Amino acid sequence: MRMVIRTICVCVAASVFLLGASYEGFAEHERKKVRKVRSSAACSAGASASVARFKIEKGEALPAAIPKPLTRKPGDAKRGLEAAVNPGKGNCLACHHIAKVLAKVEAGDKKSEAVYGNHGEVGPPLNGVGGRYSKAELRMIVVNPRKAFPDANTVMPAYHVRPLNRDVSRACRGRVMLSAQSIENIVTFLEELK
Questions:
Q1: Integer Cα distance of 12 and 35 in angstroms
Q2: For residue 113, is it within any domain?
Q3: Secondary structure of the chain: what % helix, strand, coil (to 5)?
């Protein structure tokens, strides 16, 4: 019995040694083929290294809200719209339908159709969201939707929470998806959707 176990151990050790050597050669070959990505192109256009401090309180309609703005500068609804439709920033249209944005599509204008015309159906429509939730609750939804909707199985990303370092490119580690000012701009835009 001991002889059989010893033979198995020797075979396993030899296999690991041989496979390890060939794997290292393969890994080196693959490493040479991989092109390094520049950090500016790797992260979203709105990515920020700084995270605003905020206090979470109970909301009126939701279990969590952020009552105070993340910045001293007030949000700009026009810039919020730009961030919402920008695929490199908020990209809200990828999942949500927004009638106010769809109204900006000019018939026959390919550019406005490309920017404002494609709406997703994964998330709920955002029409009237400014009437359903307070500004503090809208801020919480954009900053971290899992806190705003703890019972929902949402796929919406947390735009102002540092991600865990797993599944994040090295260039983007420690960064949030949107700056505090971009969050305030989007919240101001959403608040107008009544």
A1: 35
A2: yes
A3: 45, 0, 50
pLDDT value for 22: 41
> Is the same domain home to 169 and 139?
yes
User: Cβ(194)–Cβ(100) under 8 Å?
Assistant: no
**Structural domain that includes position 13:** 1-34
Q: Which amino acid is at 145?
A: P
Express each pLDDT in 101-141 by its tens digit. 877 776 667 777 777 777 888 999 999 999 999 999 999 99
The DSSP secondary-structure symbol of 176 reads B
Q: What's the whole-number average pLDDT of the chain?
A: 78
Assess contact for 168 and 39: CB atoms under 8 A.
Answer: no
Count of structural domains within the chain: 2
d(CA 82, CA 90): 9
Same domain as 94, residue 12: no
